Amino acid sequence: MAPILRRLLPSEVPVLRRDPVDPAARDVAAPIVEAVKARGIDAVREYAEKFGELKPGEPLIYTRPELEQAWNKLEPATQRLLVRTVHRVRRFALVQKAAITDAKLDIPGGAAGHTVAPVENAGCYAPGGRYPLPSSIIMTVTTARVAGCTNVWAASPRPTQITLGAAFVAGADAVLAAGGAHAIAALAYGCGPIGPADAVVGPGNQYVTAAKSLIAGRVAIDMLAGPSECLVIADATACARVVAADLLAQAEHDPQALPSLVSTSAQLIDDVEVELVAQLAVLPTAGIAREACKNGYAVLVGSMDEAIAISDRLAPEHLELHTDDAEAVARRCKHYGGLFVGHAAAEVLGDYGAGPNHTLPTGGTARSTGGLSVFTFLRVRTWMSLSNLKTAADLVRDAHALAKIEGLHGHAVAAAHRLDTEDSQMLLEGFESAEGALTAHSAGVPQSALDGASISTDGGASTSGNMLLALPKKGRLAEMCLKFVEAAGLQYHRRDRLDVAHCTNLPITLVFLPAKDIASFIGMGNVDAGITGQDMVAEAGCTVTTELELGIGKCFLSLQVPERKKACSATDFAGCRIATSFPHLTRSFFAPIDKQLGVETKITDISGSVEAAVGLGLADAVVDLVETGTTMRAAGLCVAENLMQTQAVLISNPHTTHATLVNKIRQRFEGYLTSSKYSLMTYNIPRTLLSKAVLVTPGKRSPTVQQLDEDSWVAVSVMVETKQTSDVMDKLKELGATDILLLSLSNCRS
Question: Which tens digits make up the pLDDT trace of 185-235?
Fold first, then answer.
């Protein structure tokens, strides 16, 4: 009997795959796309009924309220499953989005840069042929929402209740109950309340791919995907049962899918064959999987180098590494859509929401493109502004010279008009040739000067050797910290959106970081000192020196439980699900309780909107910061127990080489704290009443007393707690003091 996977020599592995667009499918799709473009929703309904996706009178479009109705009909366990999956996909997309930011660079006479913005309207397709695929809805819609698209529409033929529910929790505005080429055209050109989209994404059959090829150029698309594929690289340490299961998981997608195995072990290949036979015998989708396996193959190679070379030639959609040194092998692989490293990292986990997107390039196109991601929905828009044409003169002359070289005289004239009248006239009269201009501009500039050039953090001074002071980059704490910096007399200029600024009056560089990262950076010695919360320091678990408590950002880290369970204590939630962005502190808090009760509390690490986790069914309670309690109460929660009280602190690395500067900053901050609590009061009083006046104004240590020209009177200067100044002034007046003045302090030294 022929093996399930045919055996090939390394030289026989087919490298070239067919075009992802089937010409016959394109011929079918073209008139459908044109019909939808011309007749809109009527044509979409006509094709949906023709292909059996709809019956006459059935809804073609499900609105947001209708999606919510479908969601409410799902079992709670199914709802929680979908919410968890959306959460993981969303977290990964958020990390991706954070990796690309706006940029700005000084240029002669002005500035240039780029901004990153989402497309406004996204169309997301999910197949619905053999099986409903709510996971594809989640992968596409969630990612578009994270990107920031204003409108997100989905399309899927014969959508089931779970597909509609997935669309709701992922954030779709509506679902079109249609598939194939007519659905893609509807998303691209508009269909009633849906579209037209600026980007159309999602996997589908050959007609979907053909339609996407027809609309590409009018709208952005993710890719032209063909049949799904999975390549497993394995050595003798691999588990044949697991490898076979992963290959069949790929094979059951589609009769045209391509499961393949490359191994350095002949025994493993034989064992996988035995497992394939056994598992196919009981697999409900064996018919489809068996057909797909006919497309696949198994290859015995002499070394891991040979296996990697085959993989890089194929650039497979999914690449699994079942090897003893999978991490090392992974670093050597260059071309793939999605990489799954190690025996445990099954492709199915990626398919169903580990975080990375499962919409990936096929047919070798992973050599030139990546999978669906938040970047698919983002646009990079460049900009330039000039405000000083005198400084920009060289830039203008170069543009003029290049335009003349290219024979674009209108361009040259447009450049010349940017100069002063005299210089402009010189260029317009051909005062210098293009070649001469280029030569003159570059003359006398040694290449070594260019080789050694560097871009400073603020357009001027270098940061080399400076003390690094970390500050929170955003939020209320960031605003309060800047007041300390200003009061400490640190002079700096922070350019827009740059996270580094150089002080001009002290050898200090300010580094703006997420508050949660500051303690770790200081503990590792990357930064000398910084401001963050005591909660962040405790969560990081690193060794730092607390220089000063700043008295700002005061709040509690609390266990928050549903209002209906306000009588419960922390013990009642041991063994339950706790969501938090402080997993270390939460684990430490519950550890002794868990040990006493013999249970294990499940701690889930999430970021942002932690208080919503209970309402979404992700957790039974949360551990989060409480300041005023407004957000907590709005989420229907109350405090069951406080883990710690926290405030902002100035911390430093114990081994910093800038201890003197750290101490200077501490003293200045301390002076600002004192000045914020005290005011300076001066008054005149008869010397005979001075002893009584001192009882009213004892000061921090003692008052300063000066003799007036009138021998029987003295002038007193003293620091008084600001909150007591009105009472003190009244008492002094009653005592006989005159000329009582109150002065505010901006800083001081005790």
Answer: 999 999 988 979 999 999 888 899 999 999 998 999 988 888 888 999 999
Cα 387–388–394 angle (5° rounding)?
125
For residues 351 and 135, the answer to whether their CB atoms sit within 8 Å is: yes
- Report the SS3 class of residue 647: coil
Residue 454 lies in a domain: no
CB 509 within 8 A of CB 529: no
Q: Tell me the per-residue pLDDT of 632-652, one tens digit each, with 9 for 90 and over.
A: 888 899 999 999 999 999 999
Indicate the angle between helix axes 659-677 and 476-487, nearest 10 degrees: 100
DSSP secondary structure letters along 668-730: HHHHHHHHHHEEEEEEEEEGGGHHHHHHH---SS--EEEE-SSTTEEEEEEEEEGGGHHHHHH
Burial bucket for residue 502 (CB in 10 Å: 0-12, 13-18, 19+): buried
Same domain, 636 and 693: no
Are 573 and 621 within 8 A, CB to CB?
Answer: yes
Asked if residue 665 is part of any domain, the answer here is: no
Q: How far is Cα of residue 153 from the mean position of the Cα atoms in its chain?
A: 23
Q: Please state, in angstroms and rounded to a whole number, the distance separating the CA atoms of residues 398 and 395.
A: 5
Alpha helix (H) residue ranges in 322-462: 326-332, 347-351, 393-405, 409-416, 421-428, 434-442, 447-451
Q: Does 538 lie in the same domain as 473? A: yes
Q: Which of 496, 520, 553 is the last residue of a domain?
A: 553
Give yes or no for a contact between 684 and 741, defined as CB atoms under 8 angstroms apart.
no
> What are the helix (H) ranges across 454-514?
476-487
Higher-confidence position of 368 and 538: 538
pTM of the predicted structure, to 2 decimals:
0.55
479 and 599 part of one domain: no
CA distance 573 to 232: 43
Extract the runs of DSSP E, i.e. beta strands, from 28-173: 61-63, 103-107, 110-118, 121-125, 151-155
Indicate which residues carry an active-site annotation. Answer: 317-318
Instruction: Read off the DSSP letter of residue 617.
Output: T
Residues 276 and 400 in one domain: no
